[in-house]
Amino acid sequence: MRHRLLACIAIVAAAVSSARAQQVQPEIFTLDNGMKFLLYPRTEQPNIIAAGWVAKVGSANERPGITGISHFFEHMMFKGTNTIGTSDPARDAQFRSEQDRLRRELLTLQLSEQYQRYKDGEITDPWDPAQDTEQMRAIRAQLDQSIQAEREVTVKNEFDRVYTSEGASGMNAFTNNDMTFYFINVPSNKLELWAWMESDRLYDSVFREFYAERDVVHEERRMRTESTPTGIFQEQFESMFWMSHPYNWPVIGWPSDLNSYTMEDAQNYFDTYYRPNNIVGVIVGDFDPAQAKSLINTYFGRLERGPEPPKVVTLEHKQQAEMRMNAECDCQPQVEVRYHTVPFGHADEAALTVMSELLNGRTGRLYKNLVEGKEIASSAFAQNNNMKYAGYFAFSAETKGDAAPIDLERAWYEELKKLQNELVSDRELQKVKNQSAADVYRSLQNNFFIMLQLGYYEAQGGWEYINNMPRAIQAVTADDVQRVANAYFSETNRAVATFNRKAGSTEDPDFAAMKAALPAEMAAMAPMIKQQIESQLASASLDELMQAQAETQAQMAQMPAEMKPVMEFALKKIAQRIAELKAAENN
Amino acid sequence: MNRIQTCTITAALVMAAASSTLLAKAGIPPRPEQIKFAELAFEPPMSEDYRHEINVDGATVPVYMAPSHEFPLVSISFSFKGGAYLEPADKVGLASMTGQMMRRGGTESVSPTDMDELFDFYAANAGTFVGSTQAGASLNSLTSNLDQTFALFMDMVRNPGFDQKKIDLYKSEAIEGMKQRNDDANAIASREWDAIMWGRDHFEARVTTETTLNNITRDDLIAFHDKLFNPNNLIISVTGDFEPSEMSARLEKALSGWASGQRMPDPPAPTHELEPGVYHVEKDVPQGKVTFGHRGLKRDDPDAIPVAIMNDILGGGGFTSRIMNRVRSDEGLAYGAGSFFASKVWYPGEFGVTYASKSATVPYALRVAMEEINKMRTEPVTEEELMTAKNQAIETFPRTFESKDGMLSVFVGDEWTNRDPSYWTTYRDKVRAVSQDDVLRVARQYLDPANVAILIVGKWEDIYKGNTEIAADPSKVTTMADFFDGHAEELPLRDPLTQKPLPKN
Questions:
Q1: pLDDT, tens digit, for every residue of B147-170?
Q2: Minimal-distance CA residue of chain A relative to B396
Q3: Is A148 part of a structural domain of the chain?
Q4: Which range of residues forms the domain containing residue A291?
């Protein structure tokens, strides 16, 4: 069987590799104000246009004190303008300046009195409203009143309503370390609506509900970071991994900063980064480019070019020693091993991507060796992530059965050693290239996804990546993979996070298995049995344990069926204890 | 103001087309509603234009085909009726395991490793699944090697090997998955909500345990596969780079000799009655995860369209809906909040509201959401709200058919569930006909705030006392004592492997 299979693979290999990466050639249209547009008409999906624009600003452009402002901004951009979102722009502006004044008063007290009380140990959280002083409470009540009063002239979520009632869908945005991206799908006869709405909010943006919206962002932080099994630890790991680069603060921002920025900070930020010369528009789908260019001229031509935004100066400092973090959480025990690599567009990016693909998938090395072979992982992945200013390569895996994060970590180093010492086979390399070629087609079948890719790559460094990267992957050799495996994966260039299940957060699975298997009348005795076995094992020597293991196994056959679960449990615990003691001996 | 001037001057100086720019600029309407749009004519595609049939030893198999030659890829999808409702109660997990093991367990003549290697090397995506009410197998392959990948795909669908080693591996992985059941508050909420809604014995809420998993044998998988995966229980759809006549011939040949079996029965309706009240599960997270609601209606109910419009205004329409507006935008109580009317084909579905809020504001957000439901039942919606919801439904309607894969999956789903073929041709007219009175009538008929079940996962002690300590405005103070007279039933956290209640810490 195998022989026939491989023969037929060899024949097809040529056919697959000759399937060339599809070329995407958008028309480039740049306005005098510097705003660049990528126009890509496509008729396969009729009646619909995916449109978006990306501002080349993300959390990496922030500084301590205003972390999270890029993301907060994204929220603000949906609040409208002097036309959209208010019935009385003049009164609305009055409310905003009143709230700004009150909020500054409050902020001054928070940063002086409350921070002092916090430093003195008088209060536990200077930002907790329950720990406010009387004076602060009074200001907060006034602020609340003003926010309530502003509602009379606010037309709630009008921005969304205009789009929705015209049949636009999927309106959203995201912020990451490097960019802020706003996108939507509109019916093919309504491109002008998109041009109207988007140019209006770039031309005439107001920061409405500036203070109420922070509570929403706090809730978002609670939901995404604080209420997920590993969120707060992932945040800490990121912060540890990036030593000097601004990637080391979270995109959503540190909670103290989230409370602190003022409208002035926001306006400065807008004026610096939301200029047409720092923004790229992308339109993909069922449209006429000539008509689109005329609309773009009309609507986006009115935006004023700004000075070149400041560059991100700080480079990631070269790591000098291994970094480690050990977390306890309500989660499957797991590990992440991460290495500093290269930014987007670097010459080694393709080889690192191929390396990660060799490791991933059902026939990838990690699944074959860690999930199937050693049976120590329930899942294992490699990830090559090249961001605008710096990149990393990560191995991550979750444990299976009795395996510990340390076992996964060791298994990874073995896999790494193989990649460093041995060339990958032609067949393995060809498999990755075949998949890459086919996946390029798959990634170009949907307007919205094409729009996202073009904008994303353009913000990272150049949309041409959509064509260049597939070609670069086809050109990677086995030597290239071996070279990058040796270049970036040293011990002093890695950070390791291990996650162990918090004690008591769930039962020992072996114990649960025993309890489930015991007859109902005996299940109640299970905790006592467990305690007895564990206390005996704790004091036993390695020799005694080996002897006990042999004896228990010998007795298995004669035991009544209902006692079997207990014996099995005991055997598992003995085996675990033996492994622990042996491991201790070896160290 | 200054901005316009600078920009105009720059444009006039630099651009040859300055005059057209100026003209166009003058042409920006003051409000978006004043833009004149060209007509967009759209008629929904008719399923019969895509429907073919092939004959397989006496069985007739419907085949939907929609070719397109943009990329050298072919996508073939087999859909079978049936799912988890067909598995015995002591073997919960059998359906899903059969679906996974068809892809992972090799065939009678090809080892699992060879199968994986072949699909991967040919860069084909192949998959099989058995869900709660539907099963399927799909192949996405480059046209150039369709002969090889399709042959292997058919072997997988007809003659799965269910390799015992892979079964053991699957079971041990499933156990690892179970261990994480209580890690995420959302997962707990979703499981307990299903139990409250459908009853723990109904297939919608049943949970695989270590015991039911271990009860499943290789023979069970073979028997379950043989029952579901037969040509009498099959509808095929194909998109991508192919010619329909050639594809029909290919399919007929590939399916010949496949023993035909029975078409599967419809899923059973639940017998459980929802018990109104407050339920809570203890979990140490800073936010309470809230779901509340009651039974909804059937998909083909004549009121389904007015109910969908009503729900869109209440909480289904994202930022344009009332619950989102008040809970998120006005009060900043949650990142997301909304309602859903999830209809079911075979029996009434569910209505629910969900949000996550910091512990102290869980009761106040609940009060706000309840107020909105009550308002929906007592006052007509505004003409503007109604128009927004109706326009949205009408204008986004073409999207249902925008991709060929999406269009065919609608047709296949409709054939399985006997949807009236006129549903799509009359859909927009039915939406247009919904009036303010209709919305009020269905809100009164289908929303029943006095009889909701409320499920909260979080730190109950903090949640119960509500915003007493932090509310700046005393009229907003709300605690859980304000609902169901403060009565609440604690649901125990369940052992991840056995689903037996865990003792309290």
A1: 999 999 999 999 999 999 999 999
A2: A167
A3: no
A4: 31-85+155-300
